[in-house]
Every structure is written in C-alpha cells, then in structure tokens.
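Homework help board

Subject: predicted structure for assignment chain

Our instructor gave us this sequence and asked us to write out the predicted structure in token form, then describe one feature. I got the tokens but I'm not sure how to describe them. Can anyone check?
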Amino acid sequence: MFDYSLDFDKIDFRQSPELYRIGRGEQGVLLVEPYKSEILPHWRFKTPEIAKQSSEIIYNMFLDYLNQDDFVGADMARKFLQMGYTRARRYANHKSGRKYKDKTQKTDSNPPQKPEKREILPYDVDPIKAQSAAIFKEKWCQAKLQPKYLELKKKHQQMYEQNSNNKNLI
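My token output:
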C-alpha cells in the first residue's frame, strides 16, 4: 500500500528507495521526487503527435532507470505512462476532463441523507484524445510487462514491502 504519511518534500527516493511503496495504479505519481521533476516536464497528451513523442521519451527514461537498476524511477515512469493513458482517456470521454457531475450544495434545512451515487457526465467522445490514450496505453503495457521491470519489482517487494507488512502484524 502506498504510504501517504511520508514527508514527500524532504525525501529523495533515489537515496532512500526503501521508503517507496508501489501502491495501486498511479498512487504517488505526483509526489515521489526526484522522479516527478524528471518525468513530469515530458508528460503531454494533447494530440497523438505530442502523445507519441511524450510516451517515447518517458518510455526511454523507463529503460534508462532499468539500466541503472533503479526500480523506483522505472516504476514512476510506468506510472506516468499509465497516467498518460488514463488522463487522455478521460478527456477522450469528457471534453472538460471531469467525469462526474458537480454535487448540488446541501443546506442546513435538508436532513442528512444516505450518500448518493455520483452521476457520470454524458460521454462526448474526442477521437484525437482517444488516439493519444491508445499511444500511451501501448507504452504502458510494454513497460509493465518488461522482464527486467518485473524482476526489479519482485526484488523491491521482497526487500522492502514484505518486511514492512510483517512489522504491522507484530
């Protein structure tokens, strides 16, 4: 599980990889330094041409991190590729980038009610953003299935994450 309780402003995860937890999906993608600052400037998906260039740069960064046996960097690059896919897909489906309709303001005169199911805005498919999403998805899938990535991921989990889970059981 990703640990949001850490002081991300003060931690250099390249120097302290033992503090990094993989988490689910894109958790921590905009928190983990110095990787966020290295990768974020290259992350773009406005058009398929921009998405292709961006995803290739980030994928090459992913490979560079792997060549340095830097699992945290590789995992962060993988997360940016995943986020390129999910954000481009969101904009492909909803022009505003917002998936859910805004909630109406409740007044004090209304009694508390059971939480309502959030209403999804209607789809307004943008084929350009859909192409951008597909470009990022291809690179994301290449990254997450890359043999050296999987090897380093397993090693990281064995060295750091299983031990932290055992401490919680004591």
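Reply (TA_rk): Your tokens look well-formed. For the description, you could write something like this. The first helix runs from residue 35 to 39. That's the kind of observation they're looking for.
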